[in-house]
Amino acid sequence: MKWNGKRHCPTPKKDKHFNEAWAKIGAEKQAEKYGGNFKGYHCPCGWWHTLDRQKARAVDNARESRSARRIRAKRGEPPPFAHRVAEQKRERIERERDRKTARNRRQRLARQIPIRVWEDDGGAYFGPRGTSTTEQ
Ligand SMILES: [Zn+2]
């Protein structure tokens, strides 16, 4: 498996650790701060994150059985993780928006670079009749 650091991260808001050893230190700090049992894991994004073992298991434990799901569906109640799904969807939209913002900024900077370089080199002053070169 190739880790190029560009893979999608399912938990981009988590702390990033460079390697397992740093993740372990991070896990120990979190355990001290929040209590519980943290451990590091290698994320597909290439970084190491930490997870709360109890919390990770809680999701599994809270998963409803097939019969419970049928009963709930009959009652017309929303699935137990509906809010979580909505949250993930919102995060995805935010991520997409951030990506577009970053791309626009990058493109704007790329357009400005020739002008900046030119100005840094001393640019040119056209005299009283000259117009600003940055205006277009
Ligand atoms: Zn990640």
Structural notes for this entry:
With 136 residues, this protein is mainly alpha-helical. The chain has a domain at 13-62. Helix content is 54%, strand content 7%. It has helices at 20-34, 53-62, 66-75, 82-120, and strands at residues 38-42, 48-52. It has a two-stranded antiparallel ribbon. A hairpin with a 5-residue loop joins strand 1 (38-42) and strand 2. The longest helix has 39 residues, at 82-120. The protein is flat. The model has no long low-confidence stretch (mean pLDDT 83). Residues 9, 11, 43, 45, 47, 49 line the site of zinc ion (ZN).
Name the features.
136 residues, mainly alpha, two-stranded antiparallel sheet, 4 helices, 7% strand, flat, binds zinc ion
How many DSSP-defined strands? 2
Rg (C-alpha, Å): 25 Å
Envelope shape: flat
The major pleated sheet works out as: 2 strands, antiparallel
Instruction: Give the overall pLDDT as a whole number.
Output: 83
Topology:
Elements: H1 20-34, E1 38-42, E2 48-52, H2 53-62, H3 66-75, H4 82-120
Antiparallel strand pairs: 1-2
Report a brief summary of the structure:
The chain is mainly alpha-helical and 136 residues long. Helix content is 54%, strand content 7%.
